[in-house]
Amino acid sequence: MNNSSNEDEEIISWFEDIAFKAACVQTQTLHQILEQNFGVEYLKKWLGDLKIQDMEPCALESLYTSLVPLVSHADLEPYIQRIADGDQSPLLTQEPITTLSLSSGTTNGRPKYVPFTHHSAQSTLQIFRLSAAFRSRAFPIRPGGRILEFIYSSKQFQTRGGLTAGTATTHYYASEEYEIKQKTTRAFTCSPPEVISGGDYSQSTYCHLLLGLIYSEQVEFVASTFAYSIVQAFTAFEELWEEICEDIKKGTLSDRITSPKMREAVLGCLSPNPLLGFKIEEKCRELKGLNWLCVIPKLWPNCKYVYSIMTGSMQPYLRKLMHYSGDLALISADYGSTESWIGVNVDPASSPEKATFTVIPTFSYFEFIPLYRLQQKHNCLAVDDFLEVEPVPLAQVKVGQEYEVVLTTFTGLYRCRLGDVVQVSGFYGETPKLTFICRRKLILTINIDKNTERDLQVAVERGSRPLSKTKIELVDFTSHASVTHQPGHYIIYWEIKGEGEEDILAECCREIDVSFVDYGYIVSRKSNSIGPLELCIVENGTFKKILDYFISNGAAMGQFKTPRCTSNPDLLNILDHCTTRRFRSTAYSSCRKF
Ligand code: AMP
């Protein structure tokens, strides 16, 4: 056994130890968080001058959950804003907060500030190592190999009070922990830091691809934070390959790379290699004829797997990812948020559709709000809003039950609802294995209809089935609940690849309409208080424009998730300008049984 696998076994055995006594570890974790932050303004408000140090951890746990209320991020925002404005008194944590992370705010939300501390970077390093150890067991890689990693750190900036702000990944890439990882890891990112932090995602993507090909024989796996970035990169590659091959042959760098630092760093890795350039060019010609099927294994012959978040809002990109990846294993990456890491994928060999995330009980104190879908039955269709009850601690969750995740973190969030819905699919020792279901927030709603992102995803997936009879591919989608004219109606925007026949697209439109299984929607459609659904086909590149819009407004490429529903006027403007064809479903005739 070499050193690395010793380290792998060590970290897995640490994890097994805490997983098998997770209930006790959680009680201790909460005790530790409260002890470290004893006396901060927020806790004083709810716990007064309680002598935490003298209390039994179990007694403290029940007192804490009975005295401190469940909150959402908005309730903590006034404290976080004071920190951002430079208030140095202990508001949420005793350790001064010098860095704030921007969470993506997900679906249509605005970015939120979340405190980032040393603990955040440490837990990131720890979950990366743990996850790599589980992956190496199932898919061993060659030590010293490389990773073609589509990662992007965004700009850090200063808040009014002089704190450093940026995405959590940006802080991590700038941290001591990332340096440690780079020194001790078994495989290295192909791109130098100047490419990762270049600030222009198109330029970085070009360089990631170029360097990935230069080191193609050494690449052990392809990765990104969210699967979207890999799909986006290979879609760009379909247009860029000839230019990239020229650069490989001549040892030059395309003029499209304008960042001086990036140019210098990448040129430092290049030297003319006509043999490699011609070889790749030949393969690309062949691949182009095959619509880039299996491009990853064909160009990276030693690649063992593709690793990225493929669950939740990334599921719609899975089909395209499989197209590019061929027979390679697709490994779904871990579950976390800017607020805290949550769970690790301990079964990397299972397919992304079956991916589960095993909660790491030392990272935060986790609670779970049981959610019950209000089953309003109608012709066998039933999916509606949630009914919730009191949260339960980690060790008391039940298999099959859905929950919303609540976090108490080392970074000063106390009983904060994350807004994610998960289902418990089993246990690893005493700690639950979670399946990610969706964001809890409703996205499509006009009156009594209620649809989550997942409901929309399912409707779009079913509605796109008629496309399988054709060569048309659904590239991306979003939606809007339009109330400009009465009755209001849903608009679904589709970008497709290939010429769509009118009758097929009209069929898709009808299919999407009847694929919303929400009772409120069905009733409203039948009574015509919601009008026929509209399917708008947008021109090629529209979703790239949306990405560019978000990036130019400060979003980070590595964190980007296409908003699945929007009422943002700028976005609607882009979508409407780019719409080339519109379809309306007819009167709502029958509701289907699935
Ligand atoms: P952010 O804080 O911007 O990084 O976004 C965090 C959110 O991304 C989480 O709350 C989830 O909704 C989503 N997310 C993170 N990891 C996963 C995963 N493995 N599967 C599905 N969704 C995820």
From TrEMBL:
GH3 middle domain segment(s): 357-439
A Gene Ontology cellular-component term: cytoplasm
Highest taxon listed in the record's lineage: Eukaryota
Keywords carried by this UniProt record: Ligase
Any GO MF annotation of the entry: acid-amino acid ligase activity
Domain GH3 C-terminal: 455-569
InterPro entries named in the record: GH3, GH3_C, GH3_M
UniProt similarity note: Belongs to the IAA-amido conjugating enzyme family.
PANTHER family referenced in this protein's UniProt entry, alphabetically: GH3 DOMAIN-CONTAINING PROTEIN, INDOLE-3-ACETIC ACID-AMIDO SYNTHETASE GH3.10
Name listed for the protein in its UniProt record: Jasmonic acid-amido synthetase JAR1-like protein
Organism of derivation: Cinnamomum micranthum f. kanehirae
